[in-house]
Design goal:
Layout lengths: L3 E5 L3 H12 L3 E6 L7 H4 L3 E2 L12 H9 L6 E3 L1 H6 L1 H9 L3 H15 L2 H12 L5 E2 L3 E5 L2 H6 L1 H9 L4 E5 H7 L9 E5 L3 E3 L2 H14 L3 E4 L2 E7 L2 E6 L2 E5 L2 E3 L19 E12 L9 E3 L4 E6 L2 E5 L2 E3 L9 H13 L2 E4 L5 E7 L6 E4 L6 E5 L5 H16 L18
Bound molecules: flavin-adenine dinucleotide.
The site of flavin-adenine dinucleotide has 39 residues, from α1, β2, α2, β15 and β21.
């Protein structure tokens, strides 16, 4: 088999694949429609969180579900026709919201998330951007005792999984975040997690590292993929690319080009918004916080304080409806003084999510030479480098045992 390979999509996941395949000695071309990182790998909250081993469709989802039904929650909103149109996905998502699935999910995701911080640190060191990483953990904060109590299952699961959690009272929170208003009575400090000050800049630095090592970045929007005897033909506006092996790492666009191959990934869009606010003089947020009762994440970023909203379940390209963001901004103001907004319009992106909350990493069972590294949902920024490493070992014929739960064969792809 030739050692030429194309990685399609240069967000965090595709770029990480390209770097790891290059390291394994392959001749890699990385293709993207944009020379800037502006999509999902730009707009996320930048967390490399050990606590993500407990997936969002955990056993507690059932208790939260009635609160989402009225479609006014800041945490989750839905477009009913979209949900009905993807009913099979949602049925599986809900069916797996059980304690036994949580155990399986935690075991599987621990293999992927556990080594993620070290993998990022290595790449950041090589890319010369270690200063972008803060190892201060993150805070989940509760406005009242009752909501803290309702998080007991999550805390138990995470502690059993070995996540480093510290329970905080109001004073403990104030010691870590002295400039925050004393609004929260309880908190959890996830101490062994880290975050970056610009996920887009980190992804761009990894792309540059790939190029500095001799990797080819090819700028074009690919319009179709077709099989031919020697592999795959990619038709773009600049011409046709041919390759014996192809990695689909298109994040939320991963289904767009697969129809000629008679493939359809079970992928739903969990859209999210963010907006930056200038910091107020003398006020510093030291680490990312998640206000559990109000349903937003606030992260200190290069551009300002990034407020990210919850999940909006709708078509990827439907017009923006940033009601959840509008809803949480006054609540974020209660917690921390915000200056003026940095952008007029909020950023909008889509988490590419699988019904079992596990990304797709590995070979297609139906097409030789076709590989997937996509469907990373809420965890693609943090887990890109380890996903790329696993994919590269599989392509080299030495798949690792920890990667088994992530194989595309579970969906007959
Ligand atoms: C609000 C929000 C907060 C999040 N917070 C976190 C977090 O804190 N930590 C974490 O780990 N994850 C987080 N995530 C999830 C994470 O951002 C995603 O899982 C991850 O960025 C997906 O990366 P990707 O490379 O698969 O996709 P993308 O980054 O979307 O990359 C896909 C690439 O494909 C390219 N492309 C698309 N179509 C074509 C085409 N036809 N031809 C060529 N190129 C094409 C696009 O230009 C793009 O560059 C968050 C997501 C959101 C929305």
């Amino acid at each position: 088999m030739s050692n030429r390979i194309i990685v399609l999509g240069a967000g965090m996941v595709g770029t990480s694949c390209a770097l790891q395949l290059q390291r394994a000695g392959m001749d890699v071309t990385l293709v993207d429609a944009s020379d800037k990182v502006t999509e999902t790998s730009y707009g996320n909250a930048g967390m490399i969180a050990t606590s993500s081993v407990l997936q969002l469709n955990n056993a507690c989802l059932w208790r939260a579900l009635p609160g989402y039904m009225l479609n006014r929650s800041a945490a989750v909103r839905y477009n009913l026709p979209y949900v009905v149109g993807n009913a099979a996905w949602f049925v599986q998502y809900l069916k797996q919201s059980t304690t036994s699935w949580d155990k399986y999910g935690i075991r599987s995701l621990s293999g992927l998330i556990g080594p993620s911080l070290v993998a990022h640190k290595q790449l950041m060191g090589q890319a010369g951007i270690r200063q972008r990483l803060a190892e201060k953990g993150w805070l989940k904060l509760y406005r009242n005792e009752a909501s803290f109590v309702s998080g007991a299952y999550e805390r138990r699961c995470l502690s059993q999984a070995g996540v480093d959690l510290v329970e905080l009272d109001q004073q403990g929170i104030a010691e870590l975040e002295p400039d925050m208003n004393p609004l929260f009575c309880k908190g959890i400090w996830v101490r062994d997690s880290a975050s970056v000050d610009s996920p887009g800049a980190v992804t761009e630095a990894y792309r540059k590292l790939f190029q500095a090592r001799g990797g080819m970045f090819y700028l074009d929007r690919i319009q179709s993929i077709n099989r031919f005897e020697q592999g795959y033909q990619l038709q773009g506006s600049r011409g046709v690319l041919e390759t014996p092996q192809l990695v689909i790492a298109l994040g939320p666009w991963s289904n767009d080009l697969l129809t000629p191959l008679r493939l359809r990934l079970p992928l739903v869009y969990e859209r999210g918004y963010h907006q930056h606010f200038q910091a107020v003089a003398d006020k510093t947020l030291n680490r990312t916080i998640h206000d559990a009762d109000a349903g937003y994440v606030m992260a200190p970023m290069e551009q300002g304080l990034r407020i990210s909203s919850g999940v909006e379940l709708t078509e990827r390209d439907a017009p923006a409806t940033p009601h959840q963001l509008t809803q949480v901004i006054p609540r974020a103001q209660q917690a921390f003084s915000l200056g003026t907004p940095v952008e007029v319009e909020p950023w909008l992106g889509s988490r590419p999510s699988m019904p079992d909350s596990l990304p797709l990493i590995g070979p297609s069972t139906r097409h030789e030479g076709l590989w997937f590294c996509t469907g990373h949902g809420h965890i693609g920024f943090s887990t890109g480098p380890v996903s790329g490493r696993w994919l590269a070992t599989h392509i080299a014929g030495q798949p690792v045992a920890e990667a088994r739960p992530f194989l595309p064969q579970r969906f007959d792809l």
